[in-house]
TrEMBL record:
Chain sites annotated for binding (6R)-10-formyltetrahydrofolate: R64, M89, R90, I91, L92, N106
Enzyme Commission number(s) from the entry: 2.1.2.2
Protein name, as recorded: Phosphoribosylglycinamide formyltransferase
Organism ancestry: Bacteria, Pseudomonadati, Pseudomonadota, Gammaproteobacteria, Chromatiales
Function: Catalyzes the transfer of a formyl group from 10-formyltetrahydrofolate to 5-phospho-ribosyl-glycinamide (GAR), producing 5-phospho-ribosyl-N-formylglycinamide (FGAR) and tetrahydrofolate.
An MF annotation (GO) of this entry: phosphoribosylglycinamide formyltransferase activity
InterPro entries reported for this sequence: Formyl_transf_N (IPR002376), Formyl_transf_N_sf (IPR036477), GART (IPR004607), GART_AS (IPR001555)
Entry keyword annotation includes Transferase: yes
Length: 203
């Protein structure tokens, strides 16, 4: 399976996907990494692994629609079967999402449906939640609202700072994102026509 990964920053989730794709029995390969920021460290990770990279800066476009049209064109050239958003800090237009419906995944640092949006670790600490985590989900037009595929939980410790909590969650992200991509590549995972996650077999 040909995977495209979209990033904006450090790309540690991209790294986890690269590592998984390099295992001998991997059912997927990364065809392209696209970043909306030229300074994203993830681009270096990709280059180091010999993966093609593209930068598509949002600053070069007047509207979200224009950006997403250009993004779709880049993607079509790489011809991926699945797209993974990995710290891609852009909201995609419904038109774009629709085009890739069922073939577009995201990882979000919370136990969705709780804490959609930004600053999840801070908000979990403020709420005093004892448990936090991460979710891989199919992307739909509703921001962080698509059906979940796999979640991982971590404890929130008494004296946690947002950064410590984020690191604990991130470690789990690196475990579950490659898992979900592998399931998809093995044809065990689909978004059903009624908008639900369908996963065959036990993980
Ligand atoms: C991750 O926490 C991801 O869940 C969130 O942004 C962060 C990206 O980290 N959407 P990285 O770029 O993969 O290191």
């Amino acid at each position: 399976l040909r995977l495209a990964v979209l990033i904006s920053g450090s790309g540690s989730n991209l790294q986890a996907l690269i590592d998984a794709s390099q295992q001998a029995d991997s059912p997927f390969e990364i065809a392209v990494v696209i970043s909306n920021r030229a300074d994203a460290f993830g681009l270096e990770r990709a280059q180091r692994a010999g993966i093609a990279t593209q930068v598509l800066s949002h600053r070069d476009f007047d509207s979200r629609t224009a950006y997403d049209t250009a993004l779709a064109e880049l993607l079509r050239a790489a011809d991926p079967e699945l797209i993974a958003l990995a710290g891609f800090m852009r909201i995609l237009t419904p038109g774009f999402v629709e085009q890739w419906q069922g073939r577009l995944l995201n990882i979000h640092p919370s136990l969705l449906p709780r804490y959609r949006g930004l600053h999840t670790h801070q908000r979990v600490l403020e709420a005093g939640d004892p448990v936090h985590g991460a979710t891989v989900h199919f992307v739909t037009a509703e921001l962080d609202g698509g059906p979940a595929i796999v979640q991982a939980r971590v404890p929130v410790l008494a004296d946690d700072e947002p950064d410590q909590l984020a690191a604990r969650v991130l470690e789990q992200e690196h475990r579950i994102y490659p898992l979900a991509v592998r399931w998809f590549a093995e044809d065990r995972l689909v978004l059903s026509s009624d908008g639900r996650t369908q996963l065959d077999g036990e993980p």
